Amino acid sequence: MTYPVPVTEPVELAPETFLVTNMVQLGPGQFLSVNSMLIRGEEPVIVDTGAPMHRELWLDQVFNLVDPKDVRWVFLSHDDGDHIGALHDVLDLCPNATLVANFFTTERLRLEQPLPLPRMIWREPGEYFDAGDRRLRLVLPPIFDGPTTRGLLDERTGVMWAVDSFAALVPEVVHHAQDVPSDLYNESFAMLNSLISPWHQWLDPIRYGHHIDSVEAHRPAVVATAHGPVLTGPAIHDAFDQVRDMAGQPVTDRPRQSVLEELLADLKQPERQP
Description:
Blueprint: E1 11-14, E2 17-27, E3 30-39, E4 45-47, H1 55-63, E5 73-75, H2 87-93, E6 98-101, H3 103-109, E7 120-122, E8 128-130, E9 135-139, E10 151-154, E11 159-161, H4 182-196, H5 205-216, E12 222-224, E13 231-232, H6 234-244, H7 257-268
């Protein structure tokens, strides 16, 4: 069964900071966010560039908020397809923008389409770049599914881009954790974060706990994530605690052949006429 892609509006996270949000409906009452971010500020920063399926919509959303010629920075958290969907469009449309990435992202992406080295800077966790009226610090998120992943902390507003960490489903087009029923949030959080980072089963809880503590020690005021609702207040600490507790635990059960067969059976069903 197929579902329409809901159209959403950008969500203001802090002054001049917007979550650019799109969604995919996985089933009745189950939506997965596909988010990126825009910091409009003195030197506007685009943080990731959406998924290919949302490319045209994403470009409209972002460039209704900022003139492409004003964009000074494009931060690429990593090279997964759902974060680079409009990357080369953005580089073409934003001639004054510098791309912030790292060595391994550059190497991996050049197998498909090379990145413009003269327009790049490379940064690693603990380093930062200045965007005029703010400093943006790179962090290694608690959860990640690729070796190139880097998160971002806006030291001016306290907004943290946690990339794929803290993923969770939502029941409808809502964007904040407090609007998600706790059963759906907790169950999908455990499943999605385990799917993204199955290596948690081999982690030493003490050593991993030190890493989680180091990220939480930045004390973000708002945590935005690519595939989950926005976290504020106590929800931030709760999310850090949930991933902290994943160390050494078995992975959650994955959908298996029976689920594929159900999906195929649904595809064979004729569409109901209204």
